[in-house]
Specification:
Low-confidence stretches: 1-38, 441-471
Protein name: Efflux RND transporter periplasmic adaptor subunit
Strand content: 25-35%
Distance between the termini: 28 Å
Largest sheet: 6 strands, mixed
Number of helices: 9
Helix content: 25-40%
Pfam family, one: BSH_RND
Keywords: Signal
Subcellular location: Cell envelope
Mean pLDDT: 81
GO molecular function, one term: transmembrane transporter activity
């Protein structure tokens, strides 16, 4: 027995192949029908909807830190203390390392002393010039000697400037003994441990800081696509969005992480070896969900298609003549219709460019062996939405009337709901005056129909019934 059909019939209270049901009921009548339309096929369906959906282009990319800084020592000395935890977040200006300071403190003291000496000598030289200036006109001081005094002042001024610079350099080196964070971000591991001696000339990396928020998204597009991206970028006045998500397999949760970013930079050249153009977007990353150098999937949202027709992906079939769909008509028969499709959307729906109209119903599951003109039974996850074709319910009612079973109330319920009460099969099994074909049909349903449950004991979930059926 077809398990899919059996499962559906469990929902409505009668289990078994609906195709077999139609066939057996046809056999129970006076004249068996040969028309294939009488063999109703079970399908699921969906309604063609008009929705706003994105026109997009998918590519791959990677995350790049907005600022990535290698921390190195700019002076020689021993690392006396490390002030941060590996992998922690630091703010700009936070103290990271302390290098052994006494030699640099002494250099500052020495530079200060030399500067003070040169300042004092300069003051004496200036006083000497001022004292002798009035004596030059009186010929009491030779002009050559006075010029020597003035030159000495200039020389001492230069010495003061030199010693001032030396003091500033000594102070800078002393300041270098305390290494602080130049940017805010996440700091890496210790690459040189406390107690080791570092040398400025070695340019030895102590650790790194990666700025995590905001963050760059770098990706590429081929030259065949770039003009289209550039066109929509200009139309959006530079406000083009992209969606960034983990690659398949990196996020197994039901709600796959996807984040919006702003396209900020279009590349200025084509890579000669790959024929691609580099693009860059900027994305907020306050929760540190994305990390530098992480490969990611990128979807460029080029524009929004207004009121685009969409159907579930399963509704689109492919044949030698192209793509098509089975449209369910009002009499529950199907029509095969050629369609033109667009892009697959994130929610599993497919854009339909032509061939369908909003509000039409299309077959989603059960297309195998389905032919134009076939009668179908549309099932749903909600049992109350499942309905048997009128031709089938009419035959069921005919059998009940033939043996004077049921009531007008029951017949009306079957006609209005298109469903069979869950205890109908059980009561028909108890009936002893059935024909061979009817008995064989009931035998086929052995083990089903007890309070609307199948062999697994799952409730059929069918609608409430007045009294008992087929009593």
């Amino acid at each position: 027995m077809n398990l899919l059909l059996k499962s559906w019939l469990c929902r409505v209270g009668v289990v078994g192949s609906l195709a077999s049901l139609s066939f057996m009921l046809a056999g129970c009548g006076e004249k068996p029908q040969q028309d294939q339309k009488s063999h109703a096929r079970t399908v699921t369906a969906a309604t063609v909807e008009a929705k706003d959906v994105p026109l997009y282009y998918d590519t791959l990319g990677k995350i790049t830190s907005l600022e990535s800084v290698n921390i190195v020592s700019q002076v020689n000395g021993q690392i006396m203390e490390i002030h941060f935890e590996q992998g922690s977040t630091v703010e700009e200006g936070d103290l990271l390392y302390t290098i052994y300071q006494p030699p640099y403190e002494a250099a500052v003291t020495q530079a200060k002393g030399r500067l003070q000496q040169s300042i004092a000598a300069l003051e004496i030289a200036r006083l000497e010039v001022e004292r002798n200036r009035p004596l030059v006109p009186q010929k009491l001081v030779a002009e050559q000697s006075f010029e020597q005094m003035e030159a000495n002042v200039i020389q001492l001024e230069g010495q003061v400037e030199e010693n001032t610079g030396a003091l500033e350099a000594a102070q800078v080196n002393l300041n270098y003994c305390t290494i602080t964070a130049p940017v805010s971000g996440m700091i890496g591991i210790y690459q040189v441990n406390q107690g080791n001696v570092v040398y400025a000339s070695a340019n030895q990396q102590l650790t790194t800081i990666q700025q995590m928020d905001p963050i760059y998204v770098d990706f590429i597009v081929p030259t065949t696509v770039f003009p289209q991206v550039q066109k929509y970028y200009d139309e959006a006045e530079g406000n083009l969005k992209i969606l960034v998500s983990y690659l398949d397999g990196e996020d197994d949760s039901d709600n796959k992480l996807s984040r919006e970013a702003d396209l900020t930079i279009l590349g200025n050249l084509v890579a000669a070896n790959t024929g691609t153009v580099n693009l860059r977007a900027t994305m907020k990353n306050a929760d540190y969900a994305f990390w530098p150098n992480q490969p990611i999937a990128v979807r460029i949202i080029l524009k929004t298609l207004k009121d685009a027709l969409v159907v579930p992906e399963g509704a689109v079939a492919y044949g030698q003549q192209g793509t098509y769909a089975f449209v369910i008509k009002s009499d529950n028969t199907v029509e095969q219709r050629t369609i033109s499709v667009g892009q697959l959307q994130e929610n599993g729906t497919m854009v339909v460019k032509s061939g369908l109209s909003a509000g039409e119903r299309v077959v989603v599951e059960g297309q195998v062996f389905l032919m134009p003109g076939n009668e179908v039974i549309v099932t749903s996850d909600n049992p109350k939405e499942n309905r048997l074709p009128k031709a089938t319910t009419d035959k069921v009612i005919g059998i009940l009337k033939k043996y004077n079973k049921g009531s007008p109330e029951l017949f009306k319920q079957i006609e209005e709901t298109g469903q069979l009460p869950p205890d109908l099969v059980e009561n028909l099994k108890k009936h002893g005056a059935l024909s061979e074909k009817e008995a064989a049909f009931i035998e086929q349903l052995e083990g089903y129909g007890d309070d609307g449950k199948g062999p697994t004991g799952q409730s059929s979930g069918s609608s409430a019934t007045p009294k008992k059926a087929a009593e």
